[in-house]
Amino acid sequence: MKPAPGTAPAGYVRHSSAAAASAAGCTATVTHVESWPGGYRGAATISNVSGRPMRDWYIQWLLPQGAKLTQAWNGTPMQSGPIAMIHAPEGAVLSPGATVSEVGFVGSAAAPPAFTEITCG
User: Fold this and answer.
1) Cα(11)–Cα(39) distance, rounded to whole angstroms?
2) Spatial CA neighbour of 31 closest among 53, 13, 15, 54
3) Do the strands 83-87 and 76-80 form a parallel or antiparallel pair, or are they unpaired?
4) 83: which strand partners?
5) Would you call 5 exposed, middle or buried from its count of C-beta atoms within 10 A (0-12, 13-18, 19+)?
6) Interval 54-73: pLDDT, tens
7) Which helix (H) or strand (E) holds 21?
8) Which residues contact 58 (CB under 8 A, 6 or more apart)?
9) Half-sphere exposure (CA, 13 Å, Cβ side) for 4?
10) Does pTM surpass 0.70?
11) Sheet containing strand 13-23, strands side by side
12) CA 30, CA 25: separation in Å to the nearest integer?
């Protein structure tokens, strides 16, 4: 049976809880988009609120114990323990006032993860 529009199939969770943080010259959000048994998908944005270009930008956050960041698009994923990070694609420059919003990622987790302590640079 096909789920109704805007709902997730049985056994899947659709969730959207964004958290925002600001650091010197940027703001970022990391949003949990949806989950399924053993995994999740998220989205991230970064905005340059400084008056100068940002080279080699990054978005960083904490994952709960056991959660993993396994793949990303429009950025390079990295993880060390609970610290997850997506770096800008090589050579990317974020102009003053610009926002990158097509950053996405997937990972593995026993339960839908919460993303905390979001920073950017």
Assistant:
1) 11
2) 15
3) antiparallel
4) 62, 80
5) exposed
6) 999 999 999 999 999 999 99
7) strand 13-23
8) 85, 86, 87, 88, 120, 121
9) 1
10) yes
11) 13-23, 26-36, 39-48, 99-108, 68-73
12) 17
120 near 45, Cβ under 8 Å? Answer: no
Residue 90 pLDDT > 50, yes or no?
yes
pLDDT band at 20 (very low <50, low <70, confident <90, very high): low
Give the Cα separation of 118 and 30 in Å (integer). Answer: 7
Measured CA angle at 23 (ends 79, 14), to 5 deg: 55
* pLDDT score at 34: 96
Residues found in the chain:
121
Q: DSSP characters for 56-100?
A: S-EEEEE--TT-EEEEEESSEEEEETTEEEEEPPTT-EE-TT-EE
Give the residue carrying structure tokens 């997850």: 84
User: How many C-beta neighbours within 10 Å does residue 94 have?
Assistant: 21
